[in-house]
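Morning - 3,4-dihydroxyphenylalanine inputs below, output right after.
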Amino acid sequence: MREQVERLLEQARQQLEQASRASEVRDVRTRYLGRRGEITGLLRQMSSVAPEQRPLVGQMVNQAKEQMEALVERRLKALESEEMDKRLADEKIDITLPGLPAGPGTGHVLVTAMKRIEDIFLGMGFSIAEGPEIESDDYNFIKLNIPPDHPARDMQDTFYVDAEHVLRTHTSPVQLRAMLERAPQVPLRVIAPGRVYRRDPVDATHLPNFTQVEGLAVDRNITFGDLKGVLEEFARSFFDELTVIRMRPSYFPFTEPSAEVDVSCTVCMGEGCRVCGHSGWLEVLGAGMVHPQVLENGGYDPGAFTGFAFGMGVERLTMLKYGIDDLRHYYQNDQKFLRQFRSL
Ligand code: DAH
């Protein structure tokens, strides 16, 4: 029995030494000390040992068991700490490494487009006028010939701050502010870029919040020809040198006559394609000669002065210029979309 015990002890010792992982040590433990292990087996065989030898043999086996437990424990600890050291080393993060560079920020494509539009008109002698986004109903509607019951209000339903104030539905009220500031001096040539609001649902072509650029010129003898010349110059500068425009009769309460302005399709150059619905033309803005009543509301004598005005949507112009197919791209902050316009 003694030899058997010593042999087992020696075997276990060797196996423990050879074990290179904690899990292998645990296997060794199970093999000798587990419920069906070799040492446990020896203890079970005690019944076959002569009664007078049992205390001695029992003591011997128990000592061997304790010894083996101690060996296992020691080897386990050593390997576990080795493994932990290795894991710590492997998973070490070098916090002194430089992070990913954020890169310089750039203007949003709409801001860039707006600046481009502003530059074109500044180059033609216009200056920039501003007005509040919370506008009086009076300036936003009434002084532009849109009284409370006028059907034009239906297309420009908006957010009412109180009974007399709205989030402006267009930049046209800035026309009045600019005129009242300058009248009766001429020439008056301003553009008014800014945000406007409407009670519209969000889809590919509508947002409740978008951007317009208004234009206004008042002087003696301003004609429809001046309007056409300015708009054509704008279209050529913004889109392409070869762009031409056409004007179709339309209606706005604050201009007379009024026109919808189309540019030759930026994709097919007027040949006809899917983008322009095979017409060769894209509608880009509204314009007209300032209505005499509006001139008067702005402090100019309609008998002495005339003027033209126009209003354009920046989101739409930018979509046409860059082939953007959905208005929502502008506001989703998707870097993959925005980065395409980084160097413009
Ligand atoms: N304010 C108009 C709108 O938002 C656009 C517009 C049309 C402005 C004709 C003008 C103009 O100044 O003459 O629908």
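Note: The chain has a mean pLDDT of 93.

O.
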